[in-house]
UniProtKB/TrEMBL annotation:
SUPFAM superfamilies: 6-phosphogluconate dehydrogenase C-terminal domain-like, NAD(P)-binding Rossmann-fold domains. Belongs to the HIBADH-related family. Residues 5-131 form the 6-phosphogluconate dehydrogenase NADP-binding domain. The keyword RNA-binding does not apply. It comes from Arthrobacter sedimenti. The lineage of its organism: Bacteria, Bacillati, Actinomycetota, Actinomycetes, Micrococcales. Keywords: Oxidoreductase. Gene3D superfamilies: N-(1-d-carboxylethyl)-l-norvaline Dehydrogenase, domain 2, NAD(P)-binding Rossmann-like Domain. This is DUF1932 domain-containing protein. Residues 182-249 form the Phosphogluconate dehydrogenase NAD-binding putative C-terminal domain.
Amino acid sequence: MTACTVIGLGEAGATYAAALTAAGHAVTGFDPVAPSTPAGVTRAATAAAACEGADIVLVMTGAAAARSVAQECLPVLAAGSVYADFTSSSPGVMQELGQLPTQAAFADVAILGPVSALGEKTPLMVSGPGAQAVAALLEPLGVQVEIADGGAGAAMAHKLLRSVLMKGLASVVVEAVTAGKAAGLEDWIRAQIAGQLAGDGQAVIDRFLTGTAKHAVRRSREMQDTASYLSDLGVPAEMTTASANALARIGQATEPALR
């Protein structure tokens, strides 16, 4: 049995916390706003308190909180423990966090799919000194874990490159279907899009439409990080920047409806 801590009990955090509990691990969680706690999870009053005595910490907050959470939690962790950051932070931020003073081994974890659809079995890519420990914990749950070469930041570098396609494609599909609906040609444009997508194309389109509206603000921030990363590589990022701007607009329009 491993003493696990999950920081952030939103959709992803609650999913992993519940799965780890079901697998027989002792799970402590912390979240300042989540209204509920998964069954069997002990909820701590602070992030630091949640990390005391932990063998491994899984951080599943938004990227904006990555630095503050790391600064609070890393000093508490003992030698031999692991701090795994699942936030969609940029490779540069992951490298920075991986260099903070701590006795824990840092792991940069990239989630390569929608947790809302795949749950705890969503494929992961991990890098950094704590990568093997993350794989050892999660692979028994049925998770496909790929360990990327390189230190902290390598996994997110892969994810953000993938995001150039995935997040940009979702934005294009939303725009095309919205325009098709306005023109009275929604069925036609959906058929055109479905013909370009492998697998169950209509289900993919529906997931893009609902998921983009629900997660637009977070995805916009991720695309901003992606554009910054492409700039670091010397690669033009016009479409990535455009996707970030579009997602920010969608988020502002849909947030009131989601409250």
